[in-house]
Amino acid sequence: MDIFEILEGRFILNYIGGTLRYIYGSIWRTIFNKPKFTYKEYIYGPKKPDYYDEWGHEFNNRMIAGIFLIFIFILIANYFPIW
Questions:
Q1: Which of 7, 26, 72, 80 has its Cβ near the most Cβ atoms within 10 Å?
Q2: pLDDT tens across 22-44, in order?
Q3: 15 near 43, Cβ under 8 Å?
Q4: Which helix H or strand E contains 60, and what residues bound it?
Q5: What does pTM read for this prediction?
């Protein structure tokens, strides 16, 4: 596995997780009438110049994407068995 494949996987997982967080956050913040974040803030973090956690949002996005993909795999494996 070369570096390009590793970076591509991180990139894809970051966007899957960020998209899931954006959908969930938009619905949740609409229901409770709170200010919404932009899609870029869910992917890259807040736009503050002195923000302390540069890698936190990307890590959270990847973890959420991993959990989501495992959940989808389990659903497919249970409802469409190979044998």
A1: 26
A2: 999 999 999 999 998 899 888 88
A3: yes
A4: helix 56-79
A5: 0.79
